[in-house]
Design goal:
This protein is mostly helical. 66% of the residues lie in helices and 0% in strands. The longest helix has 31 residues.
């Protein structure tokens, strides 16, 4: 059963090389290898969230807020997963009507049993599971912006609505046969716009609305466990192979290309970040290595399947050169307490990679080349339109959602609770008990 009209399928084929290969597969035939790879990739992406993101963020906060971060990330992923099954998937990948939002043909994954996803030799429910893991980690990324002071109930309410109002429509616009992909030809291989731009911009807005931590920016708030942050970054790095490699939607050369680009992009970004630290603060740090790697991963994501390995290395270096100073701009110049640098690392990384995709996908630079009738200039314009529209939508919608939820549940904990720490104040537990 075909789920998308011919135009949407052609778009998917241009975004994912596996779609073109699927034309040679007999109609209705499931490719067990491709299907298995996507199931494994889904597990790898979930590994990124729990435990990868929880440890990465948890190590960066003060000890009195460690458990609170873990609970927030886990609960956000859980509620996003449930809502994805109930209605998020059909909003994002339901049958294309206007190009703005998918139809309601797949509520609770109804009408998906035994079907293939479009013309691809993978099952509809395998694809839905893979996309569920993206829908789970994206709002969880935002938790780094409001650590130490956001009320747990507000966090869950905000992220639940955000996944349906911001994430699902944007996923439809770019991956579900929507208007940005089919009309504007905006490309996003694995989430530079859909995941990192939405989460990064929304996190910046949320940080502004929630307000600064007590003592920011004068009080030094050091990470309580860089070792946990390194462990979390390592898990994120490994899981990202499923994030980007799985987005090829097949166990083929396109998946291998995406994984190679993912790895070398992260490697280069981490090393350049260390070099920057050496010359600016005197010593290369473990937190710097971890942050640089994540910046490289976020930056290479939108381009992973469209560029060559050399371009991925260059993109990794650019990621460090862009994201490192952006941290200083946000915190020191703008004085916005985006506590764990969600916008500077994920947002700016995703935006940078999404724009430079138009340059590095050139066949002369080892990329896949441009679609017929497109050049570097008009592809860059298409990318800029996509980034701009999604950034504006994310900012405006996030501000409205945050304020609406705050009318029922206040955004912040009390000053006493913030001083005591959210582990005790919000959850009645301590992360570490020492005799």
């Amino acid at each position: 059963m075909r789920r998308f009209p011919a135009l949407a399928l052609a778009t998917m084929a241009s975004l994912f090389p596996a779609a073109a290969r699927a034309q040679d597969t007999a109609e209705g035939a499931l490719n067990s290898g491709d299907n298995a790879w996507l199931l494994i990739s889904a597990a790898l992406v979930l590994l990124m969230t729990m435990p990868g993101l929880t440890l990465f963020y948890g190590g960066l906060v003060r000890a009195k807020n460690f458990l609170a971060v873990l609970v927030q990330v886990g609960a956000i992923a859980a509620i996003a997963s449930l809502l994805w099954i109930v209605c998020g998937y059909t909003f994002a990948f339901g049958e294309v009507t206007s190009g703005w939002l998918g139809s309601g043909n797949a509520w609770m994954l109804n009408n998906t049993a035994g079907l293939l996803h479009g013309d691809l030799p993978i099952s509809e429910r395998t694809f839905a599971l893979f996309q569920l893991t993206f829908a789970a980690i994206t709002p969880a990324l935002m938790a780094g912006a409001w650590v130490d002071r956001a009320r747990f109930g507000w966090v869950l309410g905000f992220c639940a609505l955000w996944g349906l109002v911001v994430y699902a429509p944007v996923a439809h616009w770019l991956w579900g046969g929507g208007w940005l992909a089919t009309t504007m030809n905006t490309k996003d291989f694995a989430g530079g716009i859909v995941v990192h731009t939405t989460a990064g911009v929304s996190a910046l807005v949320a940080a502004l609305l929630v307000g600064k931590r007590q003592g920011f920016p004068k009080t030094l708030m050091l990470p309580h466990s860089p070792s946990l942050t390194m462990a979390g970054a390592a898990l994120l790095w490994v899981g990202w192979f499923g994030f980007n490699g799985g987005s090829a939607l097949a166990a083929d050369d396109a998946a291998a290309t995406a994984i190679i680009n993912t790895h070398v992009g992260a490697s280069m970004a981490a090393l350049v970040w260390l070099a920057i630290e050496r010359f600016t603060v005197g010593k290369p740090t473990s937190v710097g290595f971890a942050t640089g790697a994540i910046a490289g991963l976020a930056t290479v994501t939108p381009a992973a399947g469209f560029i060559g390995a050399g371009a991925a290395m260059l993109l990794g270096a650019i990621a460090a050169l862009v994201c490192y100073p952006m941290i200083q701009v946000v915190k020191k110049r703008l004085k916005i307490d985006d506590s764990l640098d969600v916008f500077a690392v994920h947002g700016m990384g995703g935006i940078t990679g999404s724009l430079l995709l138009a340059v590095f996908m050139s066949s002369s630079l080892g990329g896949t080349g441009y679609d017929e009738g497109y050049t570097m200039v008009n592809q860059l314009a298409a990318q800029a339109v996509g980034v701009f529209v999604v950034a504006v939508w994310s900012a405006v919608a996030s501000a409205i959602i945050a304020v609406v939820v705050s009318l029922v549940i206040p955004m912040r904990v009390s000053e006493d609770a913030e001083r005591e720490g959210l582990d005790i104040a919000s959850h009645g537990e301590r992360a570490w008990e020492f005799d």
